[in-house]
Protein 1
Amino acid sequence: MARPEDMWQCQTVNCGYIYNPDKGDRKGKIPKGVKFEDLPDDWRCPICGGTKKCFRPLAGPGSTKADCELPVETDSAKLTAGAETAKLERKETNPMKKYVCDVCGYVYDPAVGDPDNDVAPGTAWEDVPADWTCPVCGADKDSFSPEE
Ligand SMILES: [Zn+2]
Ligand SMILES: [Zn+2]
């Protein structure tokens, strides 16, 4: 049995994971019998990802948690970031959607704009002035539908 001073507990809020040298850390590929002191410096708490500095022995002259470092990027943070990026990409593609005049079939292309009527190239449909009208037949913006 490991002595209490060989058992190290994670001090991170809401964690409390205890490293038991008798068990090792299967997730971190630490075999049984490895003392906490002998864990690699880049070993992380399997629960919260805190560094070794987050740990304190259950007994004996314990260190303080002064230098505890949590990982900057967790897997869930990465996932969230990925979702954000996807959202941004969708946002960026939508404004460049083309709109078709229901009356005459004229296509408003945001990449081209309508320079003859003071709509600069790159103007998203939403940013085209409300009083802009179809340069071909004069229909208003309400007469346009997004191109499929
Ligand atoms: Zn932890
Ligand atoms: Zn038209």
Note: The radius of gyration is 31 Å.
Protein 2
Amino acid sequence: MKFCSECAHPVALAIPEGDNRPRYVCTHCDAIHYQNPKLVVGSIPVWEGDGELKVLLCKRAIEPRYGYWTLPAGFMENAETTAEAAVRETEEEAGAHIELGQLFTLLNVAHVHQVHLFYLARLRDLEFAPGIESLEVQLFSEREIPWDELAFPTIRTTLELFFADRVKMREGGSYGFHSHDIVRPMRMAGAPG
Ligand SMILES: [Zn+2]
């Protein structure tokens, strides 16, 4: 940031008294502008039609990762709960109506200052359609999932954990809750590194 959102004067990086790390501090009104991680919240919308379980994915119509597939997810808004954010993002990006289940993954993406949360979800019906941030919305079985065209490491991790838990469920287990740290970006087609 360059300018104070309170008075529009320039800000400078400084360690405020009693603090231990640099913050943007206004050179005029002394306002301290703290920057903290953002929450990205989404769902894993599932349809179990004719015996085969399928997951709803959205093809991104926006950067970053235009044209790559993602679970419906987005930045949490003020004054909403994480569950409300998951339902809202699923409606906005996939036009899908879900019944929300348990929180499934909590993924720290510390290097981009984000925490990603994904909830299990069941599609109420098959009436979905791409929102303005999606090119397409489509149901995929496990073998149909475009693993090489997934938008973000948190999407891949969440889907891998989801299908791993499905295997456990066939052996009498149930869905778990999974907390992971995404330490560095995956190697993916179209992504540096
Ligand atoms: Zn100021």
Note: The chain has two domains: 7-35, 38-181.
